[in-house]
């Protein structure tokens, strides 16, 4: 990834959710994520290339590449459903978006990623990375499929870099509420 | 990267994009069909891998462009039933079908079970009779409770 790419913010849910859109790109990072997670060819290639992480220490129960693709789609659908409900204000007993974001501590950087796991049937390896700008305002910088502890795999290293670059940029103003986070659903 | 804008400025300058919402909504409303097309694409991908074929091999077999096959495998474009059947034949796999599709001339789709309970012979005839499965499955509790009860079926 090129260093310090220029970006603009695209509003997905007014006052709540924004996404980074890099210069020269036609879609936001948010759209890119869900396009990939809905693309069997992309997912099959990803899991085939990362099959060692998928089956390395039996964390994921020896799941096949095909079933990993299917599970990813199920997770992505759950995420989409939640985001859509937030957007539509269907929140009789609905939580704030901030309830889904978890702090991501990495060195001096406090980031958040969407925490999917709790109580769901399938694997929870999907992550959306974001910068928390106020109590319930988030800027998505990217995301990924997290099969291992930490963010050492190449695709997640790039996501981490994007997150750090965006944080550095957004911190440059006089805003002091900025934190980084990850999102699971 | 330019470093002269605050977050508030960026927010102020942000554009509003609702297209993701329309897309999510559409996918939600058409979930079953979307699931089916996803599964079909995945099975084609797995079969291609199994056969050691490239997308271009399938495209050539079907007489279509590589781009068209790519779009199907990415679920960007949904194939027609005709195309799916052509793919089935080319890859020698089953992708779609009608459940319980059976020939009209099927000769036997039911079994008859005859049962009797010697100790209950004085009871109404129902304790010495038969049931035809699956259209009739009822068994009397008295027949089931009698240890001397027996049954015979034509299966």
In short, what is this structure?
The complex is a heterodimer of chains A (185) and B (155). Helix content of chain A is 35%, strand content 26%. Chain A is an alpha+beta fold.
Q: Would you mind describing this structure in some detail?
A:
The complex is a heterodimer of chains A (185) and B (155). Chain A is an alpha+beta fold and 185 residues long. Chain A is built from 5 helices and 7 strands; from the N terminus they run ββααααββββαβ. In chain A, strands 1, 2, 3, 4, 5, 6 and 7 form a 7-stranded mixed β-sheet that branches. In chain A, a hairpin with a 3-residue loop joins strand 1 and strand 2. Chain A is globular, with a radius of gyration of 16 Å. Chain B has 155 residues and is an alpha+beta fold. Chain B has 2 domains: 71 residues, 434 Repressor (Amino-terminal Domain), CATH 1.10.260; 43 residues, no CATH class. Helices cover 46% and strands 12% of the residues of chain B. Chain B has 7 helices and 4 strands. The radius of gyration of chain B is 30 Å and the shape is elongated. Chain B starts with 6 loop residues before the first helix and ends with a strand. The mean pLDDT of chain B is 82. At the A-B interface, strand 1, helix 1, helix 2, helix 4 and helix 5 of A face helix 1, strand 1, helix 2 and helix 3 of B.
